[in-house]
Amino acid sequence: MNISISLASKKTRHAVLKPSSNPPIIFTPGEKIRDQTGFMRGHGTYVSAGSLKATVAGVEQNINKLVTVSPLRCRYNGEIGDVVIARVTELVHKRWKVDINARLDAVLLLTSIQLPGGELRRRGMEDEQSMRSYLSEGDLISAEVHSVFADGSLSLHMRSLKYGKLGQGVLVKVQSNLIKRSKNHFHNLSAGVSVILGNNGYIWIEPTNDNKDPVGFEVDLQQVVDIGDRQTISRVRNVVLALSYYKMLIYDTSIQYALEESNKYTVSDLLTAEACYDIANLTRHRLQAMGE
Amino acid sequence: MSLVSLNEAEKVYIIHGVEENFRCDGRSRQDYRPLELEMDIVSNANGSARLRLANSDILVCVKVEIDTPLPEAPKDGKIEYFVDCSANATPAFEGRGGEHLAAELSRFLCLAHGPVFNLSKLCIVPGQSCWKLFVDVLILECGGNLFDAVSLAAKAALCNTSLPNIVGTYEDGQNIDLQISDDPFDTKPLEASDLPVLVSLCKIGNSYVADPTIEEEICGAGCIVVSVTPKGNVTAVLKKGAGSFMPDTLNEIIMSGSHIGILLNKALNETLIQDMSSNVCKQQYGFLK
User: Which residues in chain B show pLDDT less than 50?
Assistant: First the structure.
């Protein structure tokens, strides 16, 4: 039995990033950025009394005469081709509505999934009626952003063997801008678990399964994940949360380094603030030494 | 209340983990997540505490006022609990959303503290005036296991509370005027270290877990909340959720809850003593992490 109550004054409060000589200026909402004359108003700004002011808390970015403020923390803004983890929230006419941590729910059209068995045909009335047997409310999927609608909502597709319904595992939610965009968002870590780093900040951790049915909507509920895999999954989960607490980019190398650094702790020790700081700090040192 | 939804596969994963005594975050069934406590953070209250349990953030503030005692209990003071679920915690608390949970929490806190809290300590002039304590609980973030977090924070705030000293009384016919000391440090502490804390045990599969996360609360069939004093006495028991319990299981859960409660009380007490000893030039952090 493990109960620890610490005092807030005893907590380590260091930042893992080294203080730079010229830190970026952070604007708060309503703060004046500059006079409007000669500049164009971009995202995150408004004009008031002849000057440009910020509508979000963030840093200024300029492209020629366009002034924008990019927020420090925001909901997910999708781009075509992003890998996302999504949770089905409702079923409507010929489509699923899914939660992807964006301002609006995304849609997954019945025509943008692969039917079980890889059948290729027009989707008729029967398919529409059996939609719930493929995906029902609460199910998690991995998918790709297919297109962006005018109102900013996204349309997803799962027309590849990479994507599909997710089975047993753990979902971790982090800020979406902490996920580093890379060629591959599906990783088999050497420790025997797979992670899917969704661009929307949802990270799926599951045991590596080589003989998985590629296009199936069936999930094996009888299968028991063995304790070894379970420990590694929990370790990855805690390590990812530690990295996200210290606002470090999350990608395969950072997770791998953090995992290696975490070996001196037991999995439940990784929940403590000291262990989180230690791991984040050591990981940053290793990443810097590698020049990343 | 929860906006978290889980599918069958995730539930199965959590249930199997609990059976193996290895939960999703690596804890065993009896472990608590690390807690963080900060005392005395509301300067204009008589006692206050902030407690953070993973993502649950609770602020408790105690204020005292002079009131007249009830005619049926002329020698007793009064205590009132009020819980406010801020809509910042979860959008489900918006409007009247958190009212039910708030009422349940404040009622159960009152029930749990009732048999232990000695109200006669709050008496000033029997039948004429007494202290009335207002215990205000604010839930700022909701990350599961609210009952334990709220009770720990409430106990810490009550331990932190001190009553102003009364320097004189003037009788004016029937009325008695009380003169309270002008010095804000001329106070006497309210003895509250024997108050109980709440221990939630959530039944998942065939076993039960302490300190459930939101996900585990969803998987569980039901939850038993036991109120335990530092000596291990149980003052109140509450069942949450739709599940039912066999008498044997219920007994076992209450026994185990009382065991955990002793350790939880001990941990809180040690932290409070540590806080007392480090009282000089203490820096306050509040919500700046």
Answer: 1-2
pLDDT, one tens digit per residue, over A137-153 is 889 999 999 999 999 89
Owner of token pair 């030039």: B281
- E strand spans, B105-262: 123-125, 129-141, 162-164, 166-172, 175-180, 187-189, 197-204, 207-210, 222-228, 234-240
pLDDT tens digits along A207-245:
887 666 555 677 777 788 888 889 999 999 999 999 999
Residue B69 burial (10 A CB sphere; 0-12, 13-18, 19+): buried
At A18 the pLDDT is: 66
Percent of chain B's residues with pLDDT above 70: 97
Which residues lie below 8 Å from residue A288, measured CB to CB, with a gap of 6+?
none
Q: Which of A2, A140, A169 sits opposite B32 (nearest CB)?
A: A2
CB under 8 A, 24+ apart: contacts of A119-125: A123/A94
Residue B260 forms contact with A (CB below 8 Å)? yes
CB A144, CB A163: distance < 8 Å = yes
What is the per-residue pLDDT for B1? 38
List of residues 6+ apart from A182 with CB closer than 8 A: A251, A252
* Cα–chain center distance at B4: 24
Q: In chain A, which among 19-38 make CB contacts under 8 A with chain B?
A: none
Report d(CA B153, CA B145) in Å as an integer.
13
* pLDDT for the residue numbered B2: 46
CB-CB under 8 Å, A139 with B27: no
DSSP code of residue A167? -
Residues in chain B closer than 8 A to A231 (CB atoms): 22, 26
* Cα A175–Cα B11–Cα A279 angle in degrees, nearest 5: 40
For residue B123, the distance in angstroms to the closest alpha carbon of chain A comes to 33
Residue A258 burial (C-beta neighbours within 10 Å; 0-12, 13-18, 19+): buried
* Preferred mutation among A1, A2, A3 to probe B, highest tally of B CBs within 10 A: A3
Q: In what order do the strands lie in the sheet with A202-207?
A: A170-173, A202-207, A193-197, A186-188
The whole-angstrom distance between residue B260's C-alpha and the CA centroid of its chain comes to: 16
pTM equals 0.89
The pLDDT tens digits of the residues spanning A82-139 come to 999 999 999 998 999 999 999 999 999 998 888 877 777 888 888 888 888 889 988 9
B5 min Cα distance to partner chain A (Å)? 6
Quickly count helices (H) and strands (E) in chain A.
5, 18
Among B2, B6, B10, the residue to mutate for chain A (most A Cβ within 10 A): B10
